Every structure is written in structure tokens, then in C-alpha cells.
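Justification of resources, computational component.

The compute hours requested in this renewal are based largely on the per-chain cost of generating structure records like the one below. Each record pairs the submitted sequence with a full C-alpha cell output. That output is archived, and it is also reused by downstream analysis tasks.
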Amino acid sequence: MNKFLITILIIFIAQSLFAQTKKVTGFYEKNIDNELNLESAFDKNLSKANIGETIKKLSAEPHHISSPADKANAEYILSLFNNWGWDAKIETFYVLFPTPKTRILEMTSPPFYKAILKEPALKEDATSGQSGQLPTYNAYSPDGDVTSELVFVNYGLPEDYEILDRMGIDVKGKIVIAKYGRSWRGIKPKVAEEHGAIGCIIYSDPADDGYFQGDVYPKGAFRNEYGVQRGSVIDMSAYPGDPLTPGIGATKDAKRLDRLQAPSLLKIPVLPISYHDAAPLLEALDGPVAPVSWHGGLSFAYHIGPGKTKVHLKVVFNWDIVPCYDVIAKIQGSKYPDEWVIRGNHQDAWVNGAGDPISGQAAMLEEAKSIGSMLKTGWKPDRTIVYCAWDGEEPGLLGSTEWVEEHENELKEKAVVYINSDANGRGFLFVEGSHALEPFMDEIAKQVIDPQTNVSIFERARAHEAISTQSTDEKKRIWDEKELKLYAMGSGSDYSSFIQHAGIPSLNLGFGGEDEGGEYHSIYDSYSLYEKFKDPGFQYGVTLAETAGHAVLRMADADGLPFDFKHLFKTIDLYSEDLAALLKTSREKTKLENQIINSGGYAAGEDPKKGYILPVVKPEVPYLDFSPLQNALQQLANSTDSLSVVFQNKIKTNSMSVAFNQSLYRAEQQLLNETGLPRREWYKHTLYAPGYYTGYAVKTMPGIREAIEQRNWKEAQQQIEVDAKAITRLAEYLKVLSSSGY
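The structure output for this chain reads:
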């Protein structure tokens, strides 16, 4: 190829790339350059050094909800917003938050061992020896004083108890010990309680969260033998937020439930411990040797018990109603003041919380500072921008949930989108959210540059995902994917009440994957550890600020709000296909297992010599009628196709109306079912919810999916009808919007 052709090719590629980077859906062509120039000015105001100083400042002292440092941080954040030109205030709620008075764990026989239940200060970590630290405990464990035999239950998941049942081991009246991981911590005592256990101990095994992963702190970032993961065990699969005020804001005069009757509070005592404290308990266990897959990283054979090993567990708490300080800052929109673009990150921590949550909070504050600087140039957003520093996220999404419940009706009218972040670190982009926002985030991800590789954060995330999978076919599928895919939203951060209760379109984003460590919810989540191991140079703090900030600015100034419901349809269609495949797999598995049992054989992995017992024959899996769902999806396909044409025409002809935009962002609410999910009415979204037995991890189309998983066929058919009605409602809503003439 001659030099002339090479030059032409380079010019063509450069022009093609420029055309791609100029794509900004939702803006009239005449306004695109202004938007890109605005984002460029925004980026220039962001400072790595400033983000680092903010992390250091806000993580300088332990600041759990209602602590003196928690209030001081809220007031400091308030002063920053006001200094930057925002209209800011602290909105206070009053929530139940227990703190420990008594914590005792001891092995009474044989031999005797009393757990340390304390993390030591380290000379290498300047804040690890401070006063005001919360002890190691699980918030919302009930008071309890129990003594019994100990049983090891692996991760404490429902499937682990199925194996115990097959081995003839009953935990009724026993205390169980479970490994952290594979589910949210609150699921472990919940399942133990369902099986009759009277107490639950949770520990971090070094195979999952310790020296098997790398050097431990302070030499490396991983959990040392004394590190303990604090955390809440409130049943967030029932509802998040204040346990005593489900569905209403926890104001000072709110009507409260009796604590002992609150549905989200468990009934058996729970305590987290280190692997230093767990080792003597586990090593003393007798009974059957645990299955190979249950073994962890401690240097002895894991046994299950029960037997001669008995433990005494006692916990007593202060059950206080405490203030919860949400900092709410606004810049009123110049054109559409009653349309709100909301951005949030929590500021409370279990201890110092440099990573979780201050790394995300610092990035968000840097965004707010930059927006404040642009206000001084005379720019104002078209829509109102609301920035929220939440309190009380760690115990159970308290601050955000109470705020949403208190302002639910107003938010359903005004909230365009909620954009969330939490902990942040070096690595790869992660985004989950409402799937009508998939193309919106795709464009942003292709325009923000990764600071380590100088490719887009989309390209780096895609390459990481492709190289991380073992399947050649899957690698090719990922590599051939040209658009960013959003993950579905479960729970575990402050977006939950927005999307799953109020139906407000939401996004949750952050960076990580090269910031592994074991400091989570310990005294070692400090500035010292963060600057050394998590995001040296604070580059990804800036990258998070760019990504979230561009999302905020585009939503605030878009001529036509960039919701693409064709992507939502495709996602729901895939979920529907997945449910049909799940049912088919369940049917085939049941048929095979029944054949094995009826023939007198043993299912794969079972060994009668080790005490396994045969499962019972299960009823055959019936055929479910998915036709209501399929018909609803066909209606949705037609409606989304029509709406897409109308939207594009309005952008081309500069004729977008206020009423049309408002109808777009309120469309997600059509997917709410006001009676909620079975046995947990707070969760109203028919597409996304945390699993009943996963806690954080999402279940898509959860009413149907969980009924199939739990073999409740009557309920599964009922939920097919419920979801079909919601999808039909959305389809009809979008059809009316397409022909409305707005």
C-alpha cells in the first residue's frame, strides 16, 4: 500500500472515530458541540490531588451513623456545597441503630477457648488505633445468650443445608458457623433460623478473604488473621431502610412498629469473627469430614459436627433511635425546574471507610465542585440537579430509603434518573441499571478515557471481560459485542429504593477489579491502605467523576431524554427466554434424579459410606403457560419500534416537548406492581429485585423466577400473569405516547 493510500486510510479512521465520539443521543444537532464543550470544561476542573485530600479528610476518624464524626462530616459536606454555589441543607431522619454492649464467644468444651473479638492497631496504619471505633459485630442481630453444639454449614446457603439433610445432620437447637461469601451476610442467619438453629457465627476464611488471595495487610491489601467484616444482618430481601417504619419516612413523629414485631429483624443472635478466632472452633469439630468443596484455607481437615464441641454465644445491644443526616444539595434548572437529575453516594462508614464509601463520595464531591465552578461562568443546567450525600447506608440503606419514602409522590413526578456510586478503585468500569439507559451509558463509556491504557473505559472493560472467561466461544461473543451492556440491579447500595420501590430509572456505576483486598468493613479500610493499594494517585477517582458527571450533565441538558425502550424490550425478551430455559432444565433434572432414585442408584456426588442419604422423589415439573408473557412482549416490541421513530423525528425537527420528555422518564413506573412481590410487598418492580436468598444479587423477573426455583408452580403461573400485565401496561403507555402529538 502506498503512502497516499495509507494517509487516506488514517484520515478516514480519524474521521470515523471523531464521528463516533461526537454522537450524543438526545441533543439537537445544533446543541451537540455546546454539550461536548461543557463536558470538556467540566473535566478540566477535576483534580486527582483534590480527590485524595477529600478522602484523607473524610476518613480521618471513625464515622458510623450518629457518631460525632458522622455529624461533623455531614456538616463539612454541607459547607462545601454551599461554598460552591449549591442550595444545600441537611435533612434528618430518626432510625433504629443498635450498638453492642456485650459480645462473648467462647468454646466451653473441648478445650476452652475465648474469642478475642478485636482487631489490633498497626504501626503502619495511622488511624487503626483510634478511639470511637465500632466493635466487631453484626448490626440488627437480636440480643441472645445461647450455648449449644457447633455445626459447620459451609457458606450457610439453602443448598448447603440440602447437603446436610442428605448426610442426616440436623442443626435444630444448634449454633452454626458459616463462611462469609457467596451471598449477602444477612442470608446466613436467616437460613439458619429457618432450619431451627439458635445462633449463627460468621467468619472470613483465608481461602476467600485472606492469605490465599495475596499478602495480608500491612504487607499487602488482603485480610489478616485478626480482620473482621462488620455489617448489617437486617433482612433486606424483605425491605431496606429503618426496620420500624417500612414504607414511610422515619421522621421524628413517624408511627413505628414494635421492634420485636419488625419483619426485617431476625430472631437468632449473630456475631462475625476473624479466622484467628474461627480456627480453634473449627479444628475442634468432629463428626463427618466436610465435602471437599467446603474446605477452606485453614491448615486442618474441616469437619461438620455436631459432637463434643460446644460454644457459648452472648450478645446484648443498645437499641437506640438515632439521627441520620442526609445532605441534599440542589441547583435549580433554568428551563425545567420540576425535572430532577439526582446523583448520590453515601458518606457513613463502619469505621474510617476510606474505600467504602469515601472514595466514591470524594469523586462525587469533585463533580459538585466542578459544576459549581461552571455556575460562575454564567452556565445553568436546564433541569434541576440534586446531589445527595447519604447517611446510614451501611446498616441498611437507611438515609436514601427514608428520603425516598418521605418524598415518594414528588419523586415519581419529578425524578428523571437516579445515578449512584459507592466504593471506587483502580480497574474496570462496572455499570448496572435501567435497560432503557443502555445506549446512553454506551456513548459515555466510549468517550471517557481509561487513565492507565488510554483506550476508552468501554474498550478496557470489554477486553477484561473477554480475557477473564475460559470459554473460547464466550470470548468471541464478548469481543464481538459492540455496545455496553448494563447489568441488572439487585441491592446493597442506595439505588434500591429509587428503582425497586418507586420505579425511578436508575444507574449504579464504579471502577474496580485491580483494587482487591480484605479491608472491607474493618478498621483497616483506611487512607493508608487506600492510597497504597486501591487507587494510587487517585486516577480512578477522576475517571468516576468524569463518567458520572457526564451522565448528570447530559441528562440535565438533553433536548430529548435519551431513553431507548427498544433495548428494554430486548432485555425483557431475553429474561423471558431464560425463564423458559430454567423451567426446562428443572424438568429434565427432576426427571433424571427421579429415575436414579427409583432405580436404586445414587445421584452424582453422593456416597452412602460417608453418611449421605437419598433425596425423596420429587413431583414432576408441569408445563407453564408463557403465552401471556409472549403476547405482552409482542405488544411492547411494536410500541417501542413506533416510539423510536417518533423520538428520532422530534430530534431531527427540533420539536421535543416538555410533556413528551416527562412521559419518557415516568414510563418505568408502568412496570411496578403495587401489591409487590409475593411475601415482600415493599419490592414493587416486576423486572428487578434482590433475591430472597441472595440478599444483594439480583433476580430478574423475580416473581416468576423465584417461584420456579422454589417449585411453587401455582405461584409461578400467577406471576407470569402479573408480569404480563405490567409489560402490557408499559406497551400501551408507550403506544399512547407515540401517537399523542406532544
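Residues 565-738 form a domain with the Transcription Elongation Factor S-II; Chain A fold (CATH 1.20.930.40). The chain has a mean pLDDT of 94.
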